[in-house]
Q: What sequence folds into this?
């Protein structure tokens, strides 16, 4: 197995603070500095540095089924994935996937001999790993292609002729990642910041440690923040005009004893009308000189929408939902949980959802 | 013992948790002392079942005895599955004088007429509750003992609690109940929960209620949390008021354990900042579900801690007040006030 532990490979630790003190050119921009690119010249306030986009393109239905292999797409939708972020991978090659498959399955077999409990059979463990590229998902030129990993093995008491079943799958992706950041990466680094996994936890850990050892990266849990969940409420509701979301369901938890869970389900047509009513008038935007070529959604509109839903609730129950926390959002397009679990039920709008999640992952990365 | 009785016993023993087997068999009271001695409660369930089947053969017992055992178990452990409350309406003049034997005869005969064939077993429990077990059959098959309906009724009260009833069976049961209790109608009380005791206590108000008094005295705080004494002093009065109002709405002490409450809202959206939606004619449809391991305690805590504004809104205080947990809320008809809302079935 190749190991890259030379000091050149190690990603340099430089922080925004360090950059300011020394006048030397930074080896690589940290993600935070990309937003505040002007901050080094003192033009933009540093506050703009670490924030989610305040404005997003409205989700358009992408006929992703035209561009992506239907079988691969079927593997990605309708499963609930656990999200993590991963730092850029050093010397990861999309052309070496067959090698990686062999290496990872040998690694899993080696771990098994050390006492890892994996349901396998036979000498090599009967484990087959497959790395594949999901062609066609990315649109931006800077994004690396999505990589899908599957682990197949035979169940414990299987008959000899029974085929292997997929016991674990995961994928790495970058959809519409920030171009400034991607350009600032040195060569040899591939950025696929969003890691989705589904399957037994011990296999996830093994896969992660293989990546860490081979590509000098590190993983971390990705929560879907309160703000991101609110974005999903708005973005998904916005899709109702083109394709019915069937319901808008939000789950809040209130910190009382015993904890109270409130499920607030809104009729989709009514939710859509409420959303339209809080959208800014396009005429106003023209006046402000904003570019209205692409329908864009601002964070203020999202906040107004959520506030309107909360106030309708308050009018009836005199209970302020702000006292609790939004834990889960779900519509016919998918569901997202605060704990970092996402399910995409409809492939038409998945690009928008993944763009948001890629952004969250890039922001959460420590470097 | 025929096959169906055998199967029923096997299913039943599998369902009863191991630690309850001994007490349940004791309560059943049909085993002789010698037979009780011979039973080994530590062996695996399938072996235990075989032994019990042998004893049943010895004693010549039938399915009837097995259903008796099942009923004993369910009466002691009613908190499985969902219970639904119903209320009998418009009692006739002699409704009050209906007594047990009369009720039993009437119910059995009415139900058998309406839903033949049917197997009914009625038992009176110590606390005046009448337990009824019904196994339903149809024109093609004998009564199915594997999916019985259980009904609990306290004579002299209008409340009936039912579990495991299908919509096809409902009209027969309703009719039989109405006739045998001398009422004119029965309606859905919009109250359901997993714990029979809780919904019964809620409906019959058997929990500690708090009534508003002219001279409000502070209710003793249960958990004294130590914090800044100056904040305490400042907040004391309003905290007291909140606690008082919370307890008035929901009760004091231990509250009946409800798990959830569902509101179907079909009211208009009103917000002075949002002209478009306020002018809209159609209602803003949504469904709100509150869920917790003990819903009433959670709501009381919300009111006492200020998360819910006091006085508590009638939508929430109706749960204990009216004893229901399913509501459909619509706007008033052509009325002037937009604040009050009516609950309708």
A:
């Amino acid at each position: 197995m190749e190991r890259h532990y030379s000091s050149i490979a190690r990603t340099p630790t430089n922080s925004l603070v360090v950059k300011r003190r020394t006048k030397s050119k930074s080896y690589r921009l940290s993600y935070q500095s990309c937003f505040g690119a002007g901050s080094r010249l003192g033009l933009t306030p540093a506050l703009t540095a670490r924030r989610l986009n305040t404005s997003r393109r409205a989700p358009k239905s992408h006929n992703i089924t035209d561009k992506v292999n239907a079988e691969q797409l079927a593997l990605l939708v309708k499963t609930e994935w656990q999200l993590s972020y991963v730092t850029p991978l050093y010397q990861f090659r999309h052309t070496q996937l067959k090698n990686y498959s062999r290496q990872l399955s040998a690694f899993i077999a080696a771990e098994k001999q050390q006492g890892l409990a994996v349901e396998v059979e036979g000498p090599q463990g009967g484990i087959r790993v497959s790395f594949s590229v999901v062609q066609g998902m990315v649109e931006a030129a800077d994004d690396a292609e999505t990589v899908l990993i599957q682990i197949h093995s035979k169940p414990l008491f299987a008959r000899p002729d029974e085929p292997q079943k997929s016991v674990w799958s995961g994928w790495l992706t970058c959809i519409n990642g920030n171009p400034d950041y991607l350009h600032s990466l040195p060569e040899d680094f591939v950025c696929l910041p969003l890691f989705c996994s589904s399957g037994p936890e011990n296999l996830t850990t093994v896969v992660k440690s293989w990546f860490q050892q081979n590509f000098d990266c590190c993983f971390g849990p990705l929560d879907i923040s309160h703000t991101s969940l609110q974005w999903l409420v708005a973005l998904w509701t916005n899709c109702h005009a083109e394709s019915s979301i069937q319901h808008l369901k939000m789950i809040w938890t209130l910190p009382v004893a015993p904890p109270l869970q409130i499920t607030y389900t809104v009729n989709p047509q009514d939710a859509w009308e409420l959303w339209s009513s809080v959208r800014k008038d396009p005429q106003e935007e023209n006046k402000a000189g904003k570019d209205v070529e692409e329908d864009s959604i601002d964070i203020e509109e999202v906040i107004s929408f959520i506030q309107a839903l909360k106030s309708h609730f308050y009018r009836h129950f005199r209970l302020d939902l702000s006292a609790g926390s939004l834990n889960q959002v779900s519509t016919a397009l998918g569901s997202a949980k605060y704990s970092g679990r996402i399910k995409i039920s409809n492939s038409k709008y998945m690009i928008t959802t993944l763009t948001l999640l890629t952004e969250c992952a890039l922001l959460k990365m420590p470097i | 013992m025929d096959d169906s009785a055998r199967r029923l016993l096997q299913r039943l023993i599998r369902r009863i948790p191991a630690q309850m087997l001994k007490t349940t068999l004791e309560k059943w009271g049909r085993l002789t002392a010698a037979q009780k001695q011979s039973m080994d409660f530590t062996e695996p369930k399938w072996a235990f079942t075989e032994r019990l089947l042998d004893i049943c053969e010895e004693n010549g017992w039938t399915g009837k005895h097995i259903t008796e055992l099942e009923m004993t178990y369910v009466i002691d452990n009613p908190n499985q599955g969902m219970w639904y409350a119903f209320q009998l309406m418009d009692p006739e003049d002699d409704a009050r004088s209906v007594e047990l034997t009369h009720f039993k005869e009437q119910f059995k005969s009415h139900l058998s007429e309406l839903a033949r064939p049917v197997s009914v077993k009625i038992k009176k429990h110590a606390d005046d509750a009448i337990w009824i077990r019904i196994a339903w059959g149809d024109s093609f098959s004998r009564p199915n003992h594997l999916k019985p309906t259980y009904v609990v009724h306290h004579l002299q009260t209008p409340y009936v609690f039912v579990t495991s009833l299908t919509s096809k069976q409902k009209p027969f049961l309703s009719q039989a109940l109405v006739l045998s209790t001398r009422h004119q109608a029965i309606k859905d009380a919009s109250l359901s929960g997993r714990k029979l005791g809780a919904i019964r206590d809620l409906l019959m108000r058997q929990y500690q209620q708090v009534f508003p008094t002219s001279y409000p005295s502070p209710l003793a705080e249960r958990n004294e949390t130590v914090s800044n004494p100056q904040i305490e002093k400042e907040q004391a009065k309003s905290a007291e008021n909140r606690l008082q109002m919370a307890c008035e709405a929901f009760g004091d002490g231990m509250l009946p354990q409800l798990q959830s409450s569902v509101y179907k809202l079909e009211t208009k959206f009103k917000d002075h900042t949002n002209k478009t939606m306020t002018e809209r004619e159609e209602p803003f449809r949504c469904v709100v579900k509150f869920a917790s391991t003990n819903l009433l305690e959670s709501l009381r805590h919300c009111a006492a801690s200020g998360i819910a504004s006091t006085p508590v809104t009638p939508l929430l205080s109706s749960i204990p007040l009216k004893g229901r947990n399913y509501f459909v809320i619509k706007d008033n008809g052509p009325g002037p006030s937009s604040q009050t809302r009516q609950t309708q079935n």
Notes: Chain A has a mean pLDDT of 79. The longest strand of chain A covers residues 165-173. Chain A has two domains: 68-221, 226-338.
